[in-house]
Amino acid sequence: MDPILWILLALLAFMLVGALIAIETRDLLSSVICVGAIGFGTSLIFLLLGAPDLAVTQVVVEILVLVVLVRVVITRRDEAVTTSRSTLPVGVVLLALGVMAAVVFATIADGEADQDLRLRPFGQPRLTQIVDATLLAPAGRPELAPAGATAPASVGGAFLQDGLLQDEASRGSGAANYVMGILLDYRAYDTLGEATVIFVAVVGAYAVLRKVGRSHHAGNESDR
Amino acid sequence: MAHLVPLLVVLPLAGGFLMPLVGRLTGRRESVAALPILLTAGVLVMAVWLLLGAAEPMTYWVGGWDFPIGVSLVADGLSRLMVVIVATISLVALLFSMDYMARFTSPGLYYSLFLLMLAGMNGVVLSGDLFNMFVFIEVAGIASYALVAFGTESDELEASLKYLVLGTVASAFLLVGIALVYNVTGHLNWAKVAEGVAQAGGPTAPLYVAAAFFLMGFGLKAAMVPFHAWLPDAHPSAPAPISAMLSGVLIKASGVYALARLVFSVFDGDPALGWVLVVLGTLSMVLGALMAMGQGDFKRLLAYSSVSQVGYVVLALGAAAVMQARGVSAGVVGLMVVGGLFHLANHAIFKSLLFLCSGSVEYATGTRQLKDLGGIGGRMPVTGACVRIGALAISGVPPLNGFWSKLFIIVALVLGKLYVLAAITAIVSFLTLAYYAKVQRYVLGGAPSERVVRSREAPLGMCVATVVLAVLCVVSPLLVVPAVRSRVLDPASRVVTEGRAADTRGRIITADAETPAPAAETVRQVSGELRGGSPHPPRQAESGARDRLATVLNGRAPPDTAVGTETHRAGSAGASAQATAVTRQGRTP
Amino acid sequence: MQGMSLIVKTVTRLVAGFIVLFGAYIVLYGHLTPGGGFTGGVILAGGLALVVLAFGEDYARNVLTHSWARVGDTMGALLFLLVAVLGFVGGVFFTNFLPVGAVGRLVSAGTIPVSNLAIGIKVGAGLFGVFVALAVFRRTAAGGQEPGQSIEPDA
Amino acid sequence: MTLAMLPFILAFLLLVVGLYAIVAKRNLIKIIVGILVLDYAANLLLVLMGYRTPPAGGAPVAPILTGGAHEADALAATAVDPIPQALVLTSIVIGLSVTALVVALAIRLYEKYGTFDTNLMRNLKG
To answer: S-S: C144 plus which of B340, B433, C140, D88, CB 3.0-4.6 Å?
Structure first.
């Protein structure tokens, strides 16, 4: 059995436990620190799965979030008891939901193994497919068809194959880091949206944190 | 012309980035509002131009990546209609903001968030890509969370928090849906996913699971009834122009429009999903109306009414899918969809009008409680008249716009033999009439309270904004006059009724090639165009490899006249895993 | 707030420069190695945040001021948008209009390093601004009305 | 049920746990924790779906070209799918943005009420 899968499962289990502790503990500081641990778990998984960009990003984001949250929590005394809404029914419903979803995940994978549009299991993403070789043969010369040729079966596969075309005739993004090539060239428009999201959140946070939201001196006087 | 499509997003985006600085540099509220109003007017002009200029749908591949690797913008009938609606309501809301926002501090931040929300909505309705749409839904969503809390009173903060939390849950569902769709089909582009689904002979179980996640996500954004909890808090808490934007266009752009795209453009009007929409729509319609009956707060009443009225639109879209699957004639299905889309446009107009009026009233009297507003029509004649027109329009009194769209929906439901739904729709129309009669009564009659006596008409800018919308309520029935309808509503309705068929087949149109052409042809055409406009050599020739891969990915035979010589990379899986040079007959350079 | 102890200040003085330098490296080499504009920007913001945490509120008010963060935020965003709009030069919106160059070089991949730089500036400035607003000025108790608890973010 | 589906299921359970915190907990910090967990879970799901098992015994191959352009083909045959990574990078940023905003809201609410407990707030009780 693939050792990576076992490490992954162990990490995921660790994160699940950590999440439950973070949610159920009564101490807010422990809760925040637990969530930090989950974040680092996520980062480890990213590293394990060949996503160093994500791992680095997750770590730095995690640190920033953790520092802010810890400062928010430790400088504010909260004497109120952390009560839950009638936890049990909600928990049972959600647990049922989770189990149901798990069953769905498991069955949609098994039931239609031979269909093209099935859920690909872990480790076998939809990247390439064996193509009908005659499609690739020159017109009228089917005997020249390459045997066992594959073609991309997904955007990701196409990108891996052609994202960095180096023959002079064509052009890829030219970025050695493919993820960055996608992020800032092929899907740069998404990244513009992403940059906008940060901008919106920053401006929004400034707006929310204003000391005075309404100026009562201007405009019509009202008796509010 | 095609370049207008990205500009619709870029203009408000640039304005949004600039406004925080502009707000610091100038203190006068008129000069702060000038840039946003100009930009939004520009967007409106471009949107109308786009709507009336070209009948053919356009697909704009950002960055020139004709290959399905890139992100596409799609401007078809539905997107264009939505862009015009969004820009119109935004412009009016901005006019209204000029005076209304004098009560708030930091106009620079306000206008920045407003423009970014507008950019987000334009991005959503123009996007042809699942993930890109998600990103822009987030842009619009996060801007709206902040705008709801703009007054920073505790009510507003709480409403914003509730809205934010539920919005984040919706986003997580959407992301899971995207993950599933990508895993299963390997594509993120609406059209490509649809093509894959069609090739496999319809959606499979994992895709239905993905659809369920999308339905929950978009349902939350659209505030359909089981997911509506946030709306009655968030919409009334926001400043009035923002309430108008949220109820008028945001829930439609990131909720209803996205649902329509999902069901019709990706799942090709799948009847099972159609039924889900019917159920969601009916529930929202009925429960929204019932909850609105009991409200004493003007804005809360309007918010519940939004839930109910958006239910009409979703019901109409769902019913269209159901009827299509049952083989009802295309004319009736078309009528159903036109009715739904017309109601969407109408609701944007009269709900924004009513929210803006509620803002005027609150501005003048400082209260939103209907029982304190007796006789307000006498003190504020313009606003009073506008409230009356809005209330009559939304309750479906002829000859105002609401009447026509509801009539269309009910008639189409009857013709499509969905009698029970038709009856429910008719009953809800009467309920609507009933609760708006309450509004009418308070606005018209009753002895003016002390609060009302001291009030006076709202400032000019606010009056102008409400009057513009009131006039639109009166003239928008013209949209169903055949000559206008064929330019505006019919292209949009075709996108819905023809589903995937209208969305994929060989309409890869970028900047310079606007005529429809077979896809393989166009790929080359586009690369040819790029060659012409590109400044540096590596760009200037496209290898045939990309053409070939494009065609393989598209599931089509490669074109007869492929380009030059190409190297074929054989996969490592096969026994002869080595590069094989395949020579094709060249074409004239 | 006076900032932290002398030891912390001294160490910060030594380390902060390296953190900022590292952030800049991550930004500039984003198209070659893991990282990129966003990650580097967060590191930059973290480095600056460290300085402010160690040296206290006064430092944030006088040296690394909020206005600078706002200007950087806007300028970064506009620069990225400019790169996108300049794509029209190459044909369509967001065309990578600069030469691609040799893979693996610092100057390669066309507009990607420029975009990375823009995003790095934007994210660094933006997140630093929010961090200061959230974690430094707002660390007071309930209903805190004492002076200086809020930087007035907008005029 | 195959073992290869288990990672997806666990990630999904993590999502449900985050949802549970958001729905059931009455404390702003706990709700923020729920939002963070929800984000992690959705991101993880996406990355898990892009993972490609390396050829026998090897380590997973990141989609980064370290050796020069001539290795591109070898990389294409083994590397994990880069698209989900790009999407998740965007998604992490969105998560961070939402977190910044929600923390700002929580701070303001604390200033108004002196507590993070939503039971003591007017409109969030329901």
So the answer is: C140
